[in-house]
Write a structure and sequence with these properties.
The chain is of the alpha+beta class. The protein has a single domain, classed as Jelly Rolls, CATH 2.60.120. 22% of the residues lie in helices and 26% in strands. The protein has five helices and 16 strands. The strands form five sheets. Strands 6-7-8-15-10-13 form a six-stranded antiparallel sheet. The relative contact order is 0.17.
Length: 249
């Protein structure tokens, strides 16, 4: 890292006044848009992990969420992928859901609220909370600042589902108001249907959900809406669509 931060027009922009890096913006024809942007402090615990990540910075411009895959298990390994995620004050909470495995949230910066079986628990920097298999939960940012946290996800299939939804949001682009509407309802439902075995919504008994998602998957397929696409795990996609941080010269 340079002794003094410098302003940058691409690859992130470091503000020498408050020592923050403005990065993670969607790219349009190779140039970053104005928003949404991720503000990072180079010396912060979460930012320090970015250069160590083997994967690029990814984002969901619709929900103002950013992430990087800290570790990715090889095929056949029992280890789970670990995702480092930033959620802005505008990021909506995902619907309550549950997994067949435990999930441990650990906050690195800011305050994350994890709602477990309807009980909200606020996690400050260094705090962690484990959600048991089958336990309904969600998480949200109740503050005015961005929160950074890490979690081990059920499998790379879950990562591929998230990356597909986020990648489709980039490809769909902005609406007339300059906002990112996301992948669209049918695409979202098709992805959720394929993630059902690992990320089930806490909305109805499992047999009912199984029938519901089978019907949703069929309707979405007939309408031409695609589900999970592993192509969005390719780092080159994110290097083309998301401004990457650059700390040095």
């Amino acid at each position: 890292m340079d002794s003094e931060p410098r302003s940058r027009d691409s690859g992130g922009r470091i503000d020498s006044g408050n020592r923050t890096l403005r990065t993670g913006r969607p790219l349009a024809d190779g140039s970053p848009t104005e928003r949404p942007a991720l503000e990072l402090r180079p010396e912060s615990p979460a930012s320090a992990r970015l250069p160590q990540s083997p994967s690029p910075l990814v984002s969901d411009p619709a929900s103002e969420t950013w992430a990087t895959l800290l570790s990715r298990p090889e095929e056949g390994e029992t280890d789970r992928p670990v995702l480092l995620q930033w959620a802005s004050s505008n990021s909506p909470a995902p619907p309550p859901h549950h997994h067949p495995t435990t999930e441990t949230f650990r906050t690195l910066e800011g305050t994350l609220t994890v709602v477990r079986d309807g009980d909200p628990v606020r996690l400050g920097p260094g705090d962690s909370l484990t959600v048991d298999p089958g336990q309904a939960h969600t998480f949200r940012n109740d503050t005015d600042a961005t929160v950074a946290f890490r979690a081990a996800l059920p499998s790379m299939r879950t990562v591929a589902g998230l990356y597909t939804a986020w990648g489709l949001a980039h490809e769909r682009g902005r609406d007339d108001d300059g906002r990112y509407p996301g992948p669209g309802l049918l695409h979202s439902l098709a992805i959720a249907a394929e993630m059902y075995d690992e990320t089930a919504l806490a909305m109805a008994p499992k047999p009912v959900q199984r029938l519901l998602w089978a019907a949703v998957d069929r309707v979405a397929g007939l309408a031409g809406a695609t589900g999970i696409d592993d192509a969005y795990l390719d780092p080159s996609f994110w290097n083309r669509h998301v401004e990457q941080p650059a700390w040095g010269a």
